Amino acid sequence: MCFECVQCGSGAIYIRQRTTERAKVRQISTPAGTRIPRRTRHIMAKYYESATIYNYSWDQVTQGFWNRYPNPYSSHVLSEDTVCREIRNGKLHSKRLLTKTNHVPKWGERFFKAKSVNIVEESVVDPKERTLVTYTRNIGFNKIMSVVEKVVYKSLPDQPGKTIAIRSAWIDSSVYGFGTAIRAFGLERFKKNCAKTVNGFNYVLQHMFPNNPVALVAVAAANKDYQGSKAQKLREAAKHASDHVKAQAEHLVQNLSVKG
After folding, report:
1. Which CA distances in Å does 251 have to 69, 242, 247, 259?
2. pLDDT number for residue 59
3. Angle between helices 179-208 and 58-65 (to 10 degrees)
4. Residue 151 pLDDT > 50
5. What confidence tier does 89 reach under pLDDT thresholds 50, 70, 90?
6. In 80-178, where does DSSP find H-type helix?
7. From CA 166, how far away is CA 184, in angstroms rounded?
């Protein structure tokens, strides 16, 4: 598989995999036993996978997870409520209900006019294996568009003090004649929301753990790369301007020589 790595200013490293279409989505079992989703072979659901490396330990990421909202990037999240939380077999099982805004383009208003959508988030924290697994899905309006997401947060053995989040998502629609357009729209919106999620989570982590050495080193390196890139662009712009002036001067000299 081909991955692309990007170092952002907040210190998080994005590793994105290509988006694909899958004729059949494998079935996932959530902690509560809900089966999501099984699609028939003739439906081409959009599948998206990405990974993000946070420059914080698994313990810090797990603490920050419960404090993600509010943050400057979460204006689309209207509310969050914990439905239930219990410990089973040494694992913390939680279920939360979130309400998010749901702006749709003009062409989509004929299918969906609601201003918000409810999201169920189920999670399992396994302190022994040091994993946090979340399952998220929208409830209601599933025939119009369903989005199912699974995220696994776990430590990086070869990179102490860092945590990787592996995100998988399935976007589907059963609207006859418009399914392809709705799935494409849902995928692009999901990608944008992923960026907001990562930026917002990093914002929370930075404020909860401002003196985290791993994050500070990563931010310093990112800023150095940014300054170097900026200086390179300035040098290129100056060279371009110099070449342009030189070309104009040579053209002027040629014209004077002809007239002379």
Report:
1. 62, 14, 6, 13
2. 97
3. 110
4. yes
5. very high
6. none
7. 22
Q: How far apart are CA 162 and CA 215, in angstroms?
A: 9
Q: What is the distance, to the nearest Å, from the Cα of residue 253 to the centroid of all Cα atoms in its chain? A: 56
Contact 222, 7 (CB under 8 A): yes
Here the tokens at position 20 are 């694909």
94: left (phi over 0), alpha (psi -120 to 50) or beta: beta
Q: How far is CA 50 from the centre of its chain?
A: 7
DSSP state letter for 25: P
Name the one residue in this structure whose structure tokens are 């568009």: 145
* CA separation, residue 229 to residues 8, 9, 232, 241 (Å): 13, 13, 5, 18
Look up residue 212 and give its two tokens: 């985290």
CA distance 166 to 16: 10
Q: Which position has the higher pLDDT, 75 or 102? A: 75
Contact criterion met (CB below 8 Å) for 10 and 119: no
- Structural tokens at position 13: 């490293």
**Which of 231 and 183 is assigned the larger pLDDT?**
183
Q: For residue 144, count other CB atoms closer than 10 A to its CB.
A: 19
Give dist(CA 147, CA 102) in Å, integer. Answer: 13
3-class SS at 199?
A: helix
Please name the helix (run of DSSP H) or strand (run of DSSP E) that holds residue 141, with its range, or none: none
Q: Is the pTM of this model over 0.85?
A: no
